[in-house]
Amino acid sequence: MPQTKSHKWIPTFLTLEQFETFVLPHLHIGTRGPQPKLSLHAIFNYILKLLHLGCQWSELPIEKDQNGRPEIHHSSVYRAFRRYETHGCFEDIFKASVSMLNEKGKLDTSVIHGDGTTTAAKKGGDNLGFSGHKHMKGDKVVAFCDRNLTA
Prior knowledge:
The protein is an alpha+beta fold. Helix content is 33%, strand content 12%.
């Protein structure tokens, strides 16, 4: 008997209400410099679109304004992404979402499998000049996989 899933899609657009409820409390908002030309809601939706598409920043499809020019430059979206990443905003959004799902009883951990491993950095910036025998520098990786095999 096939199961129906209600979570088949990845959100690539949040409504203003969803953004203000789930995302805005966790975003780092700068206090200096000029205000962005677009709202934080629009910028965050561009970030979601880029993460979904997996394209290069310069290939991000940006809407045109009434003069036919892009409403924001892709580098401005990139700077916002880096600022959010640096301040841990994405981690905070994820943690808050998971805790909210857990509080509402909608977090089903029976379909998640966590596997921790260490990946060695064979060549790279962290390993330059390091010549220890059987010493490994690397990153800790925890991969979460869905055990549900139906696609």
